[in-house]
Specification:
The chain has 121 residues and is mainly α. The protein has 6 helices and no strands.
């Protein structure tokens, strides 16, 4: 796992580059890019117990989710807090699962097992 300072810098850099991308590219391209970035972010082990890392991670992931899954975000308005949490987890899990299935190389079987238990966490 990267040091906290390194994680903060990495998340800040990704956020800045993402901000530039949103202002340059068409919304259709941005949606696909947001899914890719979000999927990769979810594969990394960030130290979310650190407030600086957690705050940057939440802001970036939220921005990416809104862009990657706008129809999903609209559904949140009608859900309770616990339903929203469950829906977010389900959508993120689905995004990672679809990403693994679309890879030309099959991921390590251990990665697949870790993915399968995500909904239980």
């Amino acid at each position: 796992m990267l040091l906290v300072a390194t994680q903060v810098r990495a998340l800040a850099a990704i956020t800045q580059l993402w901000s530039v991308m949103k202002n340059i590219f068409a919304s259709l391209c941005i949606s696909a890019a947001a899914k890719i970035i979000l999927t990769d972010l979810l594969k990394h082990d960030f130290r979310l117990t650190d407030e600086g890392v957690r705050d940057r991670w939440i802001k970036l992931c939220t921005d990416l989710m809104v862009t990657a899954m706008p129809s999903c975000i609209q559904e949140f308005r009608t859900l309770t807090s616990s339903q929203t949490t469950e829906k977010i987890a389900r959508e993120l899990w689905s995004l990672v699962a679809h990403s693994l299935l679309s890879q030309s190389e099959m991921p390590c079987w251990l990665d697949n097992v870790r993915l399968l238990v995500v909904p239980l966490e």
